[in-house]
Design a protein that fits this description.
Order of helices and strands: HHEHHEHEHEH
Strand content: 5-15%
Mean pLDDT: 95
Structural class: alpha+beta
Strand order of the largest sheet: 1-2-4-3
Radius of gyration: 18 Å
Number of strands: 4
Shape: globular
Largest sheet: 4 strands, antiparallel
Helix content: 40-55%
Number of helices: 7
Length: 202
């Protein structure tokens, strides 16, 4: 598969088949991820793969909790939140055979001093975000679906994901990526904005 085809085919997949993802495929995803640019060549990322039934169930419920918090924050009605619950718990939305949590180690940095805390964190997060994109594009090539989940960063949820991963507060969670074979074909959505709207030549 050509890179351009993978880019155009990539889309967020929220419903997955129950079948396992082979370990070789998971390793291939992470091998692609770590080829991403990394600020100051630090490679201070960590990919935690949740495959056991117990761990996956805990991650799944944390995602569900985060989604509820997200929709309450945008003032969705309780009726709509109840529909979300049905999609989650009855329809299996976000229930995947594998979850990959992407962390950065905040202790690993190039510039010292408090005045550099913010740019160092931003650079590390940006590096991890590029790694996640590589992972997602490789997933397309392998016939796998992925979706980025950011609600696991809410207070009280991130700490539990970190604990489940066996990590301390030195690690920052960039996102959780459900991975699996798509339950049905998901067509990429057309972007709302044109190239002219998002591009400026100077």
């Amino acid at each position: 598969m050509e890179l351009g085809e993978a880019i155009l085919k990539r889309t967020s997949v929220r419903y997955f088949e129950g079948r396992d993802v082979p370990e070789d495929a998971i390793k291939a995803l992470i091998e692609a991820a770590v080829r991403a640019p990394t600020a100051s060549s630090l490679e201070n990322w960590l990919f935690v793969v949740f495959r056991s039934e117990e761990a996956r169930e805990r991650i799944y419920h944390l995602i569900a909790r985060g989604m509820e918090e997200y929709y309450r924050a945008v003032n969705l009605s309780e009726e709509k939140i109840e529909k979300l619950r049905k999609k989650m718990y009855e329809g299996g939305m976000y229930r995947a055979p594998v979850y990959i949590a992407v962390f950065i180690d905040k202790r690993v940095r190039f510039l010292k001093g408090e005045e550099f805390d913010e740019p160092e964190l931003l650079w590390s997060v940006e590096s991890a975000a590029m790694a996640i994109q590589n992972l997602m594009l490789k997933a397309v090539e392998l016939g796998l679906g992925t979706v980025y989940v950011g609600v696991t960063n809410f207070r009280g949820i991130e700490e539990q994901v970190r604990t489940l991963a066996g990590l301390d507060e030195n690690y920052y969670l960039v996102g959780v990526i459900p991975v699996g074979y798509p339950l049905e074909k998901a067509a990429p959505r057309k972007r709302r904005k044109t190239l002219e709207q998002v591009t400026r030549f100077i």
